[in-house]
Amino acid sequence: MRYTLEVDFIESVKGAKKRVTLPEGGVLDLSVPEGVIDGQVLRLRGKGAASPSGGPNGDALVEIKVRAHPLFTRQDFDIHSEIPITLDEAVLGGKIEVSTIGGRVQLSLPAGTSSGRVFRLKGKGIANKRSSGETGDHLVKVRIVLPGEGDEKLAEFMQKWRENNRYDPGRR
Predict the structure, then answer these.
(1) Which residues pair with 94 in a beta bridge?
(2) Which of 11, 23, 42, 73 has an alpha carbon 20 to 30 Å from 34's alpha carbon atom?
(3) What is the pLDDT of residues 62-100, one digit of tens each?
């Protein structure tokens, strides 16, 4: 018997206990293992259909479908996310709070952080239970976000700065 089970992103990363209701009304209790990937098939021995020849029941094959997460994506055992930062945080540096699959952590931004820079939070990814036993990382990309409405003082400051500092990152 083949079934499909949809799980949340965090359930796929951390593992979960799930109950599947079968079309004929029965139920299957199963453990979604830590680190399961989208499309992975779990085999539940003896939990499938009865054998037509009177032998033991067959296996139930449960394909896992992982729902997308609004903040995180997965690549192998690494988690990726993007976080907005303010212009002053980029220029001056500072500490920001970052959501990870294990909770919130502090990330120190160095002064002069450019938009698009990626920071590695070592060991904050997905545990690799299958082979090495190591844990992946969480890669955080920062994106500088300016205030939505015009800020006159900031515009004046930037105009004066531009006049005194000819900086063009596209030309060297």
Answers:
(1) 109
(2) 23
(3) 999 999 999 999 999 999 999 999 999 999 999 999 999
Name the CATH superfamily housing domain 2-66.
Urease metallochaperone UreE, N-terminal domain (2.60.260.20)
Burial label for 144, CB within 10 Å (0-12, 13-18, 19+), is middle
Going by C-alpha positions, the residue among 4, 60, 12 that lies closest to residue 37 is: 12
Residue range(s) in the chain whose domain bears CATH number 2.60.260.20: 2-66, 73-148
For the entire predicted model, the pTM comes to 0.83
Q: CATH topology for 73-148?
A: HSP40/DNAj peptide-binding domain (2.60.260)
Tokens of 137: 């990382």
How far is Cα 120 from Cα 141, in angstroms, rounded to an integer?
9
Query: What is the distance between the alpha carbons of residues 109 and 88, in angstroms, rounded to a whole number?
Result: 11
pLDDT at 39: 94
Q: Of the candidates 91, 112, 108, 79, which has an alpha carbon nearest to the alpha carbon of residue 13?
A: 79
Q: What is the rounded distance in angstroms from the CA atom of residue 142 to the CA atom of residue 120?
A: 11
